[in-house]
Amino acid sequence: MLIDRLLAIEVSALCDADKTLPVADPAIRAMVPDVRFAGPAFTVRAHDDHLPVMSALAQAAPGDVLVIATDGGGLAVFGELFATEAKRGGLAGIVTDGYCRDVAGLRSLGLPAFSRGTLPRSGTTVSRAPLNQRVRFAGLDVAPGDIVFGDDDGLVIASPAQIEAALETGEAIGRAEGAILRHTRSGQRSLHELTNWEAHVAALDRGEESSLGFDV
């Protein structure tokens, strides 16, 4: 299954496999550390009003990732209450390009949660913005069903087809990096010995095309 395979690698390995993958604004960061998650996007537009988020929690399916686009809003759009309901409903995580609150509670809960930062003030609860529509999120155009893949390094959001096309290479990169780390942590071999670094720089110095690669 696509999601299970993603959860076995790091976001950076997938990005190395396809350097064109859409990456969210790096200002959007993990509020809960040491997490990795993936799932289809359930999109919400919530500009300083968190009623659409509550409505989305009533409709999103287990395994979904709530993607909250705030259109530049400056108030918190979710906190511990909404995150607890999301976890109860089996959601994979919540991400917003705006702000969250109750960060101590979020960390205790453990549900993956990404935001631009924390802010104690929330907005109104009257918006009836339509749910699960295409949104502009953290510099990316996100459609319902796009795959959201995140860890402490950041978020990738792309179509299932683009994710799947990069996955096999990403898995190979993950295996190679794991082998390199085992060797270097044991002190047996250096990073330079485990890559083609010497031949690569020599080729570049001769004006030849070359790519840095693993030798494990």
Q: Can you tell me about this structure?
A:
This protein has 216 residues and is an alpha/beta fold. It has seven helices and twelve strands. Strand 11 (147-151) and strand 12 form a beta hairpin. Helix 2 crosses helix 6 and helix 4 (80-88) runs parallel beside helix 5. The longest helix has 27 residues, at 160-186.
Helix fraction, binned, reads 25-40%
Overall strand count: 12
Task: Report the sheet with the most strands, covering strand number, pairing sense and barrel closure.
Answer: 7 strands, mixed
Order of helices and strands: HHEEHEEHEEHEEEEEEHH
Give the DSSP E fraction (strand runs of 2 or more residues).
15-25%
Q: On the 0-100 scale, what is the average pLDDT?
A: 96
Radius of gyration: 20 Å
Q: Cα distance, first to last residue?
A: 27 Å
Spatial arrangement of strands, main beta sheet: 1-7-5-3-2-11-12
Oligomer: single chain
List unreliable stretches of 5+ residues.
none
Question: Can you count the helices?
Answer: 7
Structural class: alpha/beta
Shape: elongated
Task: Please outline the helices and strands.
Elements (H helix, E strand, L loop, with lengths): L1 H6 L3 H7 L11 E2 L5 E10 L5 H9 L5 E5 L6 E3 L1 H9 L4 E4 L2 E2 L2 H7 L3 E3 L1 E2 L16 E3 L2 E3 L4 E5 L2 E5 L1 H27 L10 H9 L11
Parallel strand pairs: 2-3, 3-5, 4-6, 5-7, 6-8
Antiparallel strand pairs: 1-7, 2-11, 9-10, 11-12
Helix pairs in contact: 2-6, 4-5
